[in-house]
């Protein structure tokens, strides 16, 4: 893996987990290019510009995209994605998973690992468009099932298992991971 981008949601707990991941990637793995990007102060256009900058620089090399934060599910459309900040303290900053998928299609020539540490995390992989993208080299590690919740344990658990050189197995939480099939 050549580079990584970590996008952080708008709570201190997310920032701490993101800093742990950044430290692991820089000092244990030895990645030279790790971008820690605060989402809470960027509208969608600014977040897209930062993403495109880092994702295209990775070229055909493997790229890690990590998101640590909240997610949303629209009550009317059922659309899901990242809820990464607030604009002027009254408007959610959201990134629909469909938009993220199009960003990845436009910017990536090489393999991408998406570490999605938020609720509704596996909804990204469940997109019909994701399933029909031939030649798309995206793998996901999701903190929750498509309609599930999580409690912020994915990132520290991954770091612990990777440090021990073990395979990561998701924890099963009866109240939040009802749809997992192992």
Describe the structure.
Helix 1 runs parallel beside helix 5 (154-163). Strand 5 (80-87) and strand 6 form a beta hairpin. The chain is α/β, with parallel strands linked by helices and 182 residues long. The protein is 31% helix and 26% strand.
Search tags:
182 residues; alpha/beta; five-stranded parallel β-sheet; three-stranded antiparallel β-sheet; 5 helices; 26% strand; globular; disordered C terminus
What's the arrangement of secondary structure elements?
Layout (H helix, E strand, L loop, with lengths): L2 E6 L3 H18 L3 E6 L5 H14 L5 E6 L1 E4 L6 E8 L3 E6 H11 L4 E6 L10 H4 L6 E5 L11 H10 L19
Helix pairs in contact: 1-5
Short description:
This protein has 182 residues and is of the alpha/beta class.
DSSP helical segment count: 5
Helix coverage percent of residues? 25-40%
Structural class: alpha/beta
The 3D shape can be described as globular
Q: What does the average pLDDT come to? A: 87
Please give the largest β-sheet: 5 strands, parallel
Please provide the ordered H/E string of secondary-structure elements: EHEHEEEEHEHEH
Cα end-to-end separation: 27 Å
- The largest beta-sheet arranges its strands as 2-1-3-7-8
């Amino acid at each position: 893996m050549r580079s990584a981008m970590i996008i952080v949601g708008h709570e201190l707990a997310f920032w701490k987990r993101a800093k742990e991941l950044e430290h692991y990637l820089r000092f244990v793995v030895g990645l030279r290019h790790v971008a820690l990007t605060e989402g809470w102060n960027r509208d969608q256009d600014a977040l897209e510009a930062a993403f495109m900058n880092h994702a295209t620089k990775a070229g055909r090399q493997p790229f890690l995209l990590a998101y640590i934060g909240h997610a949303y599910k629209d009550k009317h459309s059922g659309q899901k994605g990242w809820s990464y900040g607030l604009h002027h303290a009254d408007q959610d900053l959201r990134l629909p998973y469909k938009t993220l998928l199009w960003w990845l299609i436009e910017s990536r020539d090489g393999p991408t690992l998406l570490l999605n540490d938020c609720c509704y995390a596996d909804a990204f992989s469940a997109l019909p468009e994701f399933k029909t993208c031939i030649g798309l080299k995206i793998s996901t590690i999701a903190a929750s099932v498509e309609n599930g919740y999580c409690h912020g344990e994915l990132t520290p658990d991954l770091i612990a298992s990777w440090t021990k050189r073990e395979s990561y197995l998701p924890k099963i939480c009866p109240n939040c991971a009802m749809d997992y099939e192992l």
